[in-house]
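Researcher: Checking consistency across runs. Here is Phosphotransferase again:
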Amino acid sequence: MTPVVVPVTIVPVTMAAVEEVEVVVAHHECATLRVGDVFLKVDADQTRTDVEVDAMAMAPVPTPEVLWRKPPVLALAALPGTALGRLGEPSNASPAAWAAAGAAVRMLHEAPVPPRPGRSPGEIASHLDGECEWLVANDVLPADLVTRNRRIAEAALRPWKPVFVHGDLQVAHVFVDGDEITGVLDWSEAAQGDALFDLAILTLGHPEHLGDVVAGYGTDVDLDVIRAWWSLRSLQAVRWLVEHGFDPSAPGCEIDILKARM
């Protein structure tokens, strides 16, 4: 989900220096601040932090260094490079960088699965139906738009072999330097899950790079299932975004993705 960046300047009492604190993302569940080369993640739910720290220790791809942890704060070192892209914005990364991201995801999916189980197709379907009902009942989206995307989403709700999934592999969570992956952020949703879900979230809003990612992934995948996850993820995200102060109707974001499926 698209982060909101709000610069805040803190002036020390001594006035000897001015240090900038950047609010990278903040909502009702947690907040991430950046101070120089350190990211401070503040989360009242320490279960999510436990999952994140454990997943980074297990992941076979570069992750941020854990500097220290003092609940409710987790301090992480900044990754070199820049984000692969942002939802709603064109990506400046090369096709080779996108392919490298696909290769990194393949490495993750071939690693031993973490202990945390993911949601089953039935659980996801039940939650999705509730979100679709809310979208229509509250006039957030037209009924035909919701119905069409709910039908498309059905293709994702099939049995899958559980693999180690990141669980929230947004394009902004993958950092690159040139054509090389320097690290992957935000592992609090890591679990056992569907490999194609990760590929879908990585390419959400960037369909032009799906071919590059799949080429780097290096094995045949069902593109229709990936596209089904685009619809499913977007339908599920709209209410959360609205309730946490984000705008899913921003150009290129979730509502535009749903409209594109029409």
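Researcher: Does this match what you'd expect to see?
Model: One thing to look at in this run: The first helix runs from residue 46 to 58.
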